[in-house]
Design brief:
CATH class of the largest domain: Alpha Beta
Distance between the termini: 64 Å
Structural class: alpha+beta
Mean pLDDT: 85
Radius of gyration: 32 Å
Number of helices: 8
Largest sheet: 6 strands, mixed
Strand content: 5-15%
Number of domains: 4
Number of strands: 10
Length: about 350
């Protein structure tokens, strides 16, 4: 019941899901490999993501059972479903040796990690749907002593309800001072195909070039000046209509500003749990997809007059790999006679034999 997503900006640290160490539905261990380790930030930075069932506490028992085989944990966070005055002033102390709190503290001791207070200490992490129920702190962050002593390491509880997306838990934002410079995300400017920006870009280029048709270059200097104006026209149009985009394999070409606004509006009004906002989002997505593909089909059928370009089978494809047929001695059958003899001997090996 845990999911761990790794931002592509961290690919440089070669993240690894350590299912070879722990394979449990309520826990996941991810290792980041830092090329320049330092005190508090080891070469293998292990992050443990936990969901603790409030009734069975299964993951706490499992982690205690395999604690000796676990690597050194640098950071651990998750929904522990355990209330105590150590992190929640409105809760009561659990002093019984067999209480879930004491079992959790024993686990922290075994893993050599300790609880970390957030910057906005005392802020509840769970907001129940029932207004009469008490808000509590059950989402915790624990870390190694070396990481806690690192300057710049801290976390806070996000209190903006729009960021909860309808969940009853508030997100935790943890900042870890990674050694060296932050990996640079390569961005490039781009104009989406079939977009309004592409039409405006082409229109501006055509207009600027059309105003240059009367210029006649009688010398190399005049020609160089004209080419400079052409280059400037392309550069200005590109800067005006292109946008800096971060590469994403999940991006959709038909996504437009209307989709972005509908998505933000849904987030500000309860997220997907708000049926009205969810239906509005779906309607906006359908309209954006229809507009995009209708324009693409019109361009193929009317402008390029090559409707078959829409079909994937018109593109170049690789031939399937095949193996040569070998005879009984392992030699390739390069001639028709050799091929016939090999097939004949294979499928008629029992010909004329007595039964």
């Amino acid at each position: 019941r845990v999911l761990t997503y790794i931002n592509r900006r961290l690919d440089v640290f070669k993240p690894q899901l350590r299912s070879d160490i722990i394979k449990h539905r309520d826990a996941s261990l991810v290792t980041l490999h830092f090329p320049q380790p330092r005190r508090g930030i080891p070469h293998e930075f292990n992050i443990l993501n936990v969901y603790n069932d409030g009734e069975t506490h299964a993951v706490v028992h499992e982690l205690r059972r395999i604690s000796e085989t676990l690597p050194r944990i640098s950071l651990c966070a998750g929904d522990f479903n355990i209330q105590d005055r150590t992190w929640d002033e409105g809760a009561v102390n659990q002093i019984r040796p067999s209480s879930p709190f004491m079992r959790l503290q024993e686990l922290f001791t075994d893993l050599e990690i300790q609880y970390v207070h957030p910057v906005n200490r005392g802020t509840p992490t769970r907001i129940p749907d029932d207004a009469n129920s008490r808000a509590s702190v059950i989402d915790l962050v624990v870390a190694s002593a070396a990481l806690i002593n690192q300057e710049g390491f801290h976390y806070k509880i996000k209190v903006d309800d729009r960021e909860r997306w309808g969940s009853d838990h508030r997100p935790l934002q943890i900042e870890v001072p990674i050694s060296g410079s932050e990996p640079e995300m390569r961005c490039k400017r781009k104009i989406e195909a079939w977009s309004e920006e592409e039409d405006d870009y082409v229109a501006q280029i055509c207009g600027d070039l059309g105003r240059m048709t009367d210029n006649v270059s009688n010398s190399a200097e005049e020609l160089e000046t004209t080419m400079g104006r052409v280059s400037t026209a392309f550069e200005r149009a590109w800067e005006a209509y292109s946008e800096e985009r971060k590469p994403s394999r999940h991006g959709k070409k038909w996504w437009n500003e209307d989709c972005k606004k509908a998505y933000q509006e849904m987030g500000e009004n309860g997220g997907p749990r708000n049926r009205e906002m969810r239906n509005k989002m779906r309607k906006t997505l359908r309209a954006a997809r229809r507009q995009y593909f209708e324009k693409q089909i019109h361009n193929m059928a009317s402008d390029r007059k090559r409707p078959w370009d829409l079909m994937p089978w018109t593109r170049e494809r690789k031939m399937p790999a095949v193996e040569a047929i070998l005879d009984s001695e392992g030699n390739s059958c390069n001639t028709e006679d050799k091929l016939f003899e090999t097939l004949h001997n294979t499928y008629n090996a029992a010909d004329n034999r007595e039964v």
